[in-house]
């Protein structure tokens, strides 16, 4: 994911920054607890296309974000 693009994208549900997960090809919103898919390099920033993060996933991202 292009760092410049990532710096301007926000969660459509609450306008908070997103975290890029290269392995899962998703943009993660910790505040909303959602993961938005990126298909063929295109972020799909639609709440109805996002999946809910599990508690374990959210904790993993919180810990990783602090390092």
Overview of the structural elements:
- This protein has 67 residues and is an alpha+beta fold.
- The chain has a single domain, classed as Single Sheet (N-terminal domain of TfIIb).
- The chain is 27% helix and 25% strand.
- A hairpin with a 4-residue loop joins strand 2 and strand 3.
- The two termini are 20 Å apart.
- The model has no long low-confidence stretch (mean pLDDT 93).
How are the SSEs ordered, and which strands pair?
Blueprint: H1 3-8, E1 19-21, E2 26-29, E3 34-39, E4 42-43, E5 51-52, H2 55-66
Antiparallel strand pairs: 1-2, 2-3, 3-4, 3-5
Summarize the structure.
The protein is α+β, with helices and mostly antiparallel strands. The chain is built from 2 helices and 5 strands; from the N terminus they run αβββββα.
Which key features would you list for this structure?
67 residues; alpha+beta; N-terminal domain of TfIIb; 5-stranded antiparallel β-sheet; 5 strands; globular
Instruction: Please bin the fraction of helical residues.
Output: 25-40%
Mean pLDDT: 93
Would you state the CATH class? Mainly Beta
Beta-strand residue fraction: 25-35%
Tell how many strands the DSSP assignment holds. Answer: 5
What's the main sheet like? 5 strands, antiparallel
Structural class: alpha+beta
In sequence order, what are the helices and strands, one letter per element? Answer: HEEEEEH
CATH fold assignment: N-terminal domain of TfIIb
Overall geometric form: globular
The total of helices stands at: 2
Oligomer: single chain
Provide the low-confidence segments as ranges. none
Q: How large is the radius of gyration? A: 11 Å
Number of discrete domains = 1
Separation of termini? 20 Å
CATH A-level architecture: Single Sheet
């Amino acid at each position: 994911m292009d760092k410049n693009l990532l710096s301007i994208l926000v969660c459509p549900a609450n306008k908070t920054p997103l975290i890029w997960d290269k392995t899962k090809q998703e943009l993660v919103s910790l505040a909303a607890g959602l993961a938005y898919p990126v298909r063929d390099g295109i972020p799909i920033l639609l709440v109805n296309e996002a999946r809910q993060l599990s508690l374990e996933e959210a904790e993993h991202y919180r810990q990783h974000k602090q390092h």
